[in-house]
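Bug #2210: token dump truncated for 8-oxo-dGTP diphosphatase?
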Amino acid sequence: MSETRIIYVSAGVLLRPDNSLLLATRPSGKSMAGLWELPGGKIEPGETPESALIREMGEELAVTLKRDDLSPLTFASHGYDSFHLVMPVFLARNWEGEPVPQEGQDLAWVKPGALKTMPAPAADVPLFDFLERHLTKHVGA
Ligand SMILES: Nc1nc2c([nH]c(=O)n2[C@@H]2O[C@H](COP(=O)(O)OP(=O)(O)OP(=O)(O)O)[C@@H](O)[C@H]2O)c(=O)[nH]1
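Reproduced locally. Full output below:
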């Protein structure tokens, strides 16, 4: 029986008062370059999902998040060819700083109803569906 390699990634939904959320393209040169994803990245040894996300938001977007700004929202679990992705997703409504791409990404603030128009990694398709239903239902589109 072949072993499944699990990759743990932490991702964040930065939600503005107008109910738009931030997506970023994967930088060129990386796997799945150009697709729209939630900001975040791999959880390194010794990190919690929260500390990894806080670090990634600083590295990728120069945004400062505090632990108390993060609420657990949902997760993705998706089998890619070479690994299985497990990705806790946190919601943040407060942060310090305006997101500025640090790695050449494009950024877009997207309303939940428009998420499905954004080409995304396979793991994000059910996630975008969830966000559309959840954020539209509970916050108003
Ligand atoms: N941050 C983020 N990663 C995602 C999302 N959806 C998804 O499949 N992923 C995958 O989760 C992994 C994220 O890790 P990462 O962004 O730190 O990866 P990396 O830059 O080191 O990528 P690399 O392994 O291609 O060098 C990638 O394989 C990425 O394709 C998402 O919405 N946000």
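Output looks complete on our side. The first strand starts at residue 6 and ends at 14. Marking as cannot-reproduce; reopen if the truncation happens again.
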